[in-house]
Write a structure and sequence with these properties.
Blueprint (H helix, E strand, L loop, with lengths): L3 E5 L10 H9 L3 E5 L8 H13 L5 E5 L1 H12 L7 E5 L7 H7 L12 H6 L9 E7 L6 H4 L22 E5 L10 H13 L13
Parallel strand pairs: 1-2, 1-3, 3-4, 4-5, 5-6
Length: about 210
């Protein structure tokens, strides 16, 4: 299994935002690099083709995507099923669509902050049936912008509800004690991501969250 991994940031962020996560993955023995994209002015319609082109030059490489980055990564894999990506870890990505994003979009004066990523955040991704093993690390500390915009259905990381992270077809799902933003800085999230990249499943305590 490859030890190479490409890390994608979320909306309103740049490559430097995921530097703490990249550092932890490198310390765990991975050859980690970042993929930057314009989340507002370019959006998925620019980012996804650029990511596909980046991945085509690889023999084998895994991916880790925070929030929107996970959606962009999964959409690239949906469009190009033969990309050499054995495993993808999403960190707090609203793969089933984001209620927070829809709440933002409903306010005319706030809607532009989603830019060209609005549609993907609104709708999320189709159930996953591809060959890449996809794992989700979700947070359950409800601190974030989403709480100020809308009422969450059940537990959340403050921006994304746990239910929005449970896309059909995931290989595994785990929960760590973190807010949405904090997932990038969380040692537990990085450790879970590293374990999934190596083994294809997360570390689960008895009785903890898991995909059966």
């Amino acid at each position: 299994m490859t030890n190479r991994v490409l890390v994608l940031h979320g909306i309103w962020n740049a490559r430097s935002w995921v530097a703490p996560l990249v550092a932890r993955l490198r310390a765990a023995g991975f050859e980690a690099d970042t993929f930057g994209y314009a989340s507002i002015f370019g959006g998925p319609e620019v980012a996804v083709p650029a990511l596909i082109e980046r991945l085509r030059g690889e023999a084998s490489i895994n991916m880790v995507g925070h929030s929107l980055g996970g959606l962009v990564a999964l959409e690239a894999l949906r469009r190009e099923p033969d990309l050499p990506v054995p495993r993808l870890v999403c960190l707090g990505s609203p793969l089933c669509g984001s209620r927070s994003a829809r709440a933002l979009a409903s306010r005319a004066w706030l809607a532009p902050v989603l830019g060209r990523s609005r549609s993907l955040l609104d709708c999320g991704c189709e159930p996953w049936t591809g060959s890449t093993q996809v794992g989700m690390v979700a947070g359950d500390v409800p601190r974030g912008l989403g709480r100020l915009l809308t009422r969450m259905d059940g537990p959340s990381d403050g921006t994304v509800a746990l239910s929005e992270t449970r896309l059909e077809g995931l290989a595994d799902h785990c929960i760590v004690s973190s807010s949405h933003t904090g997932l990038v800085f969380s040692r537990a999230a990085a450790d879970q991501a590293a374990h999934f990249l190596r083994e294809g499943h997360f570390l689960h305590a008895p009785g903890s969250d898991a995909v059966s």
